[in-house]
């Protein structure tokens, strides 16, 4: 049995999906000559922040709820293609909204959870989406 207990939805973006979204919305990535290099880490980077910048670039192009539904479905497809029997997929709506400079919707996570559950049933894989808890500190 092959298990992944820590895969991030935001880090599972397919470059082709991000570029589809970018072209649709006229995002700067669609006009960038080396757009894929702005999304992927080919080789070692000088730390965590340059890697997170690449993830931010992808998140910023996925600006619609339907984009995140697609991304969730593709993350599970990719996990199944990797031979996983179980996947815990983590997602952070606050990071998504900060990177896209807009609030997607309050129900984004539950829509992604529903979207993820559908392909899991088709592949007989099990997946869970872990959502961050946010607590106000006085």
From TrEMBL:
E.C. designation(s): 3.5.4.4
GO molecular function: adenosine deaminase activity; metal ion binding
Origin superkingdom: Bacteria
Record flagged with keyword Zinc: yes
One Pfam family from the record: A_deaminase
One of the protein's GO biological processes: inosine biosynthetic process
GO cellular component, one term: cytosol
InterPro entries: A_deaminase_dom, Ado/ade_deaminase, Metal_Hydrolase
TM helices/strands, residue ranges: none
Keywords on record: Hydrolase, Metal-binding, Zinc
Residue ranges of domain Adenosine deaminase in the record: 3-107
Cofactor(s) needed for function: Zn(2+)
Keyword Zinc: yes
Protein family per UniProt: Belongs to the metallo-dependent hydrolases superfamily. Adenosine and AMP deaminases family.
Protein name as it appears in the record: adenosine deaminase
Naturally occurring in which organism (per UniProt): Allosaccharopolyspora coralli
Lineage start: Bacteria, Bacillati, Actinomycetota, Actinomycetes, Pseudonocardiales
């Amino acid at each position: 049995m092959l298990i992944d207990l820590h895969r991030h939805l935001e880090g599972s973006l397919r470059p082709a999906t991000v570029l589809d979204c970018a072209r649709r919305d006229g995002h700067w990535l669609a006009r960038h000559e080396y757009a894929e290099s702005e999304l992927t880490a080919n080789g070692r980077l000088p730390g965590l922040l340059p890697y997170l910048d690449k993830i931010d670039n992808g998140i910023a192009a996925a600006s619609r709820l339907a984009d995140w539904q697609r991304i969730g479905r593709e993350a599970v497809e990719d996990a199944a293609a990797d031979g996983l029997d179980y996947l815990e997929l983590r997602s952070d709506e606050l990071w998504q909204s900060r990177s896209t400079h807009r609030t997607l919707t309050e129900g984004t996570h539950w829509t992604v959870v529903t979207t993820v559950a559908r392909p899991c049933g088709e592949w007989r894989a099990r997946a869970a989406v872990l959502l961050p808890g946010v607590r106000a500190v006085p």
